[in-house]
């Protein structure tokens, strides 16, 4: 793609993502508030010692798990369909009503059970615990009573900024999963082109790989910066790769575009058993 084509592609991607972010921000924030409210209820009833002792049990509700799984099902399937249509159009063999939604939803649920519970849900809950501990520590140092601790815990900003980060990060990972499912469903090999958002908020490392294209089965070499110097590289399957470091995934707004591989005769190249790695 040209730079202008990548910019247009990125803008369309981010418009779609913003729609999902608006929808799921309230859902995720409510789930985080439920965790805090559960702790507050025990704190008021039984005091700090019991609330801290029972924190693991109190915070492990199903709200976060359901919110994240619902995000992956809706966003993942949306981008799977979008990517699959794009790939079919490159073959000029449009298939109407191909109907892979149920297959993709089942795959996402399996993925959730195997990966997301430990990589998303549990870390989110651990961060809630750490927020509570920090407030309790501050309360102890400043001599707060239970009412003041509760007021701090009930601050809307305590969960709202986290909800924004969670929704943006996990929706990016869900879109990655959707594009991956579409490429796995297509019967031909595909290349992948990194498309950065390219504005003032884009990581410098992601600007560096904007427009890079990798062959089937290969990964992007994303530079790691310390100050202004490159100190290493991280291999990523694409933007939103759940195996990548937090610094390359959190709040990322990049996307990628997949292209069918054609041989010298203009015929699409079969995968010959190749499947995109998880």
Percent range for β-strand residues: 5-15%
Span from first to last CA?
Answer: 26 Å
The percentage helix is 55-70%
The class by helix and strand makeup works out as mainly alpha
Low-confidence stretches: none
Number of helices: 9
Give the overall silhouette: elongated
Strand order of the largest sheet: 2-1-5
Got a strand count? 5
Helices and strands, in N-to-C order? HHHHHHHEHEEEHE
Q: C-alpha Rg, in Å?
A: 22 Å
Give the biggest sheet. Answer: 3 strands, antiparallel
Average predicted confidence as pLDDT: 90
Quick tags:
elongated, 278 residues, mainly alpha, 9 helices, single chain, two-stranded antiparallel ribbon, three-stranded antiparallel beta sheet
Compile the SSE list and pairings.
Layout: H1 3-46, H2 48-53, H3 55-59, H4 63-91, H5 101-142, H6 146-153, H7 156-185, E1 190-195, H8 204-209, E2 213-214, E3 220-226, E4 229-236, H9 246-249, E5 255-260
Antiparallel strand pairs: 1-2, 1-5, 3-4
């Amino acid at each position: 793609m040209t730079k202008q084509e990548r910019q247009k592609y990125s803008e369309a991607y981010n418009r779609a993502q913003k729609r999902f972010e608006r929808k799921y921000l309230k859902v995720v924030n409510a789930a985080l508030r439920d965790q805090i409210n559960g702790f507050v209820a025990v704190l008021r009833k039984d005091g700090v010692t019991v609330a801290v002792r029972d924190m693991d049990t109190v915070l492990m509700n199903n709200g976060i798990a359901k919110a994240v799984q619902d995000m992956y099902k809706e966003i993942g399937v949306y981008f799977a369909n979008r990517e699959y249509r794009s790939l079919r159009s490159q073959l000029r063999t449009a298939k109407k009503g191909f109907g892979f939604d149920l297959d993709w939803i089942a795959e996402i649920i399996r993925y959730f059970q195997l990966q997301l519970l430990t990589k998303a849900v549990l870390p989110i809950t651990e961060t809630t615990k750490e927020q509570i501990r920090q407030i309790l520590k501050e309360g102890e140092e400043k001599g707060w009573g239970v009412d003041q601790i509760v007021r701090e815990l009930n601050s809307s900003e305590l969960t709202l900024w986290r909800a924004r980060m969670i929704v943006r990060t996990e929706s990016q990972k869900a879109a990655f999963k959707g594009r991956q499912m579409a490429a796995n469903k297509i019967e031909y090999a595909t290349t992948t082109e990194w498309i950065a958002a390219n504005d003032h908020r884009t990581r410098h490392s992601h600007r560096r790989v904007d427009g890079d294209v990798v062959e089937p089965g290969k990964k992007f070499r994303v530079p790691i910066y310390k100050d202004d110097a490159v100190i290493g590289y991280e291999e990523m399957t694409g933007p939103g790769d759940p195996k990548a470091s937090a610094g390359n995934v959190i709040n990322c707004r990049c996307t990628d575009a997949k292209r069918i591989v054609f041989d010298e005769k203009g015929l699409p190249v079969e995968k010959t058993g190749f499947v995109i790695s998880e």
